[in-house]
Structure formats: structure tokens, C-alpha cells
Amino acid sequence: MNADRTPPHSILEIRDLTVRLPPGGDRTNAVENVSMHVNAGEIVCVVGESGSGKSVTAQTVIGLLPREQLTPTSGSVIFEGEDVLTLSRERMRGLRGKRISMIFQEPMTALNPVVRVGRQIAEVFRSHGLEPGRGGMPSISDLLESVRLPEPERLQNSYPHQLSGGQRQRIMIAMALALSPSLLLADEPTTALDVTTQARILKLIREMQDRYHNGVLFITHDFGVVAEIADRVVVMRDGQVVEQGPTDRILRNPQQDYTRMLISAVPSMVPAKRKRAPDAPVALRTENLAKTYGGGSWFRKGWEVKAAEAVNLELRRGQTLGIVGESGSGKSTVARCVVRLIDPTGGKVYLGDTEIGNVRLRELKPMRKRIQIIFQDPYRSLNPRRSIGKSLIEGPTNFGVPEREAWARAVQLLEIVGIDPDAHARFPHQFSGGQRQRICIARALAMEPDVLVADEAVSALDVSVQAQVLDLLTDIRDRFDLSVLFITHDLRVAAQVCDSVAVMHQGRVVEYEPVEQLFAAPTHPYTRELLAAAPGRHWNFQAFCEATETVAALDG
């Protein structure tokens, strides 16, 4: 598709950019004949699945491509009249941070863990021969206040690990905006954040863009985010631009099937209707479950944090119970206590009729196979040195299943989760993120559990892959009559897969209702705040796609 005509006040114009991949890749080019532009004072969202070329495009603009692996072979990237592909390294260093800045997806890996954040912000100034608070430059405290961070004096003396995810992301934004750049590149800056923190970051980026009148190239796979902040949208697939235009037109009348697929994959905020068996046996329940962290010594004052307090939940056979809330609300703590990856400090956990919350570890082993967990990051939860086949048979053989029988079960499970059984000898790095998550689901099912705990199991996946994994989890739950404890910060996902939802805030369950009732008439202020913070909450993406398909069919 031809790019929109570039207005004369554009600050970035990418023309027919092609970047070659190393030999042996799944395709020849990472991006191919890509054209787009960003105007001053606007936000352009680039959307697409993993591998679509979004991040490669942004890294090309700021000069961060690993040149030995990714090589621009044609096209141009014109920033404020200069083609960055032809600039020297010295000139690019002069632009980077001062005229072009970038916010990365994961601030914990982008920030130096052993340097205080104030010093890291100061390095942005000093790398350009400037000093914060001098010569008209803002001070570090001023920058922290501008991104709505409290207690700037304390925060600038903190290390990254002492801050929350939202605070670290604000630090990254402060660093990116320190020298008032004219172009801001934001690479999935809200993907891993809970819904309320995400809403605050999106609002902050819009406020900063309005204040500095800079252009923003915002990379995302979430059309909810697109609906919230984008002025224009560029849709990429397999390294090529398939569609671009004003946000309203793209969302209401997408022209390409791929765009319609991405939009329709966004989970609805309207809960799915499911039949429940209210008299089904209880598979899992907690009674006043509590977890308190604390410490202290002769040289340090004692401290105590109640991560979970008086949590009472009940999960019936064949149903899905969702736990939602912000980071730090206690969701994952409850999940880890239930699975006994950490020990509760109070209360009880019943797996069926058996209390497992207070038994000793050696007595717990026979119960392990009855409750399994799927983690958020499948790559870190799979052994990189072990083939997926061996990972699948490890659990059953540890519990006495003959190896031949375990292999037969592994092959069957790979087929169920949509992975070619012939791939059993491959290693985790040879699969995509969605495939790795499917493998983790198969590994959990290999133990034939009664309860499956999914701890943010789809939050890091593309929206289309997420939809596939959610469908898979629902199919597996129904096929095996499993009970699923589903931990998530995504209310859209909770609406589609859960029968009941417990809302956690500061370690406590503040609301616990059937999903339809909770979404239709939330009673707690915190629940209402969560629902109001969902990006693109006013858009019914599925309805727009269905209407577009109907019009196309009539025209045909």
C-alpha cells in the first residue's frame, strides 16, 4: 500500500526502507519497502504481531540496529532533513537522546541495576556536555515531578529494584524527555503493566506530547491502546506495511483482512456467557489465607508487609476463577501459596478435601501432580538445555510413569495444544513465544492435574496469539473437566474466560462475584476504577469488524 502523502511539517519520513536479515532466517528481510511518516504533535501507532518488523523499524530510526545481524539495504530514514542511514556514529550519538529518544518495553533491563536512578538520568545530560539544573536545563527533581512521581528527592537516590514497574517506566520517560527531543520512540512501553498503571502511562505520554509538541512513534500490539492515544495507525505484517491511515478509519473500516483479524482478536469487555454447574464439587478453596513478609536485625529496624490477608476463595470443578488487580495487589502471592511454591503464614488451602497449606514439604510431594502452574514467561520456565519432549516427560517419570507411556502422553498432548509432535527434539529457543506457552500448557497437563493455575499466562503475548492460547485453555478446561485459577491484570481477558472474578487490592479481596454481575454492576470503588482504566473500553472492536465484513459481503 502506498504511504499517505507526507505533510511539509513531518519530522520523520521513512521511505521504502528494507533491512536484511542474516542468512538462514525465516525470510530474507526483517522489513521490506516500509514507508511511513510522523508529524510534529501527533502520535502514530505501529501495530502488528511479533516478527512484523515494528521494533526493527524503530531501532533503525534511532541507530540501534546490530549492524552485523541486521543491515539496511535500501530506502531512507529522513529525520529533520537528514538521512540517518548515512550519518556517522558521532553524529548519531549527537542526535540520540537529544533529538531522538526511545522508551523501551522493559525498564528493568534498560536501567542499570547498580546505579541510582538520579545518576542515570544525569548521564543523559552529561553525554551531551550538559548539566541538569544548569544553563536552562531542568533539574532531575523537576523531571521526576513532570512525570508525576512523588518524593523526587527520595526516588532519585533509589535503585531500580526499589521501584515499582510503573515508577521504573516513568523514570524511563523522564530520561527520554530530559532534553526535549522532537521525536519519541515508544517500544511497547505499557505491555507488562497492570491496567491502571497502563492508563496513567498512556495519559502521561499524551500530556508530554501535548506539552513538547513532539512526534511519537508508538509500537504496540494492543488495539485498545491504539484506540486510546493514536492519531494515525500503521499496520505491519511480516516486515511490510499492509495498511495505514487515521485511527478512526482504521478501527471503524479496516480494509485488509489482517487488520480485521487483529482488531477482532481484542477480547470484548462484555463477559462471555457460559453454563455453570453450581453443584459441581469444590476443587480448590482457601480459608483466611495470609502471607506476610518481614525482616529485621540488630542493625536494621524490623519491617512487615502483608502481601495477602484473609483471602477466601472457592473454585469448582470445570470452572475458571479469575483474580484481578494491580501489581502488588497480592494476586501472584495467592497463586504461589496455593501451589505451595511459597508457604502461607496463615489460613488453609484445600485441594479437594485435602488441606495442603500447612503440610510439610516431604508430605506435599504426592499432591504436587494434582495442581500445576503456568507462568507468565514460558522461556524462563522451560529449561533451555532440554528438548521439549524431555521437558514433557520429566514430571510423569518423576512420579513413576514408565518412560514409554510418558512419551506416548507427550505426543498426544503436543497434538492437543497444536504443536507438531515431530518437533519434540527441538529446544525452547526454536519456538515462538505463543508456541512456548502452548508447550508449558502441555507440560502442566502431562501431570493430569485437577487444578491448573495460570499466572499472567497470556499477558506478554500478541493479541492474536493471546486469543489462540485463551481458546486453547478454554478447550482444555472443558475437555478434561479442569478447574482453572486464572491470574490476570487484563479485564478483557477475565471477561472472556472466567466464570467468577475476585478483585484484589492491597492484599485483600475487595469484591468477589460472578463475572457478568461484576462487570455489569461493580460495587467497590476500586473495581470501578479498574474497569474505567481499561484502554479502548468504549470501543466494541468485534462489532466494528462484523459490520465491516457485512458491508464487504454486500458490496461483493
Main-sheet strand order equals: 6-7-8-3-9-10
CATH superfamily of the largest domain: P-loop containing nucleotide triphosphate hydrolases
- CA radius of gyration: 25 Å
| Helical percentage | 25-40%
Q: Any idea of the CATH class of the largest domain?
A: Alpha Beta
Could you name the ranges where pLDDT drops below 50 across 5 or more consecutive residues? 1-8, 550-555
Largest sheet: 6 strands, mixed
CATH architecture of the largest domain: 3-Layer(aba) Sandwich
User: Looking at the chains present, what oligomeric state does this protein adopt?
Assistant: single chain
Structural class from helices and strands?
A: alpha/beta
Distance between the termini: 21 Å
Number of helices: 22
Beta-strand residue percentage: 15-25%
Tell me the number of strands.
Answer: 20
Number of domains: 3
Mean pLDDT: 87
How would you describe this protein?
The chain is of the alpha/beta class. It has three domains: 211 residues, P-loop containing nucleotide triphosphate hydrolases (Rossmann fold), CATH 3.40.50; 72 residues, no CATH class; 243 residues, Rossmann fold, CATH 3.40.50. The protein has 22 helices and 20 strands. The strands form four sheets. A six-stranded mixed beta sheet has the order 6-7-8-3-9-10, with helices on both faces. The protein is globular and about 70 Å long. The N terminus and C terminus are likely disordered.
Condensed summary:
By secondary structure, the chain is an alpha/beta fold. It is globular, with a radius of gyration of 25 Å.
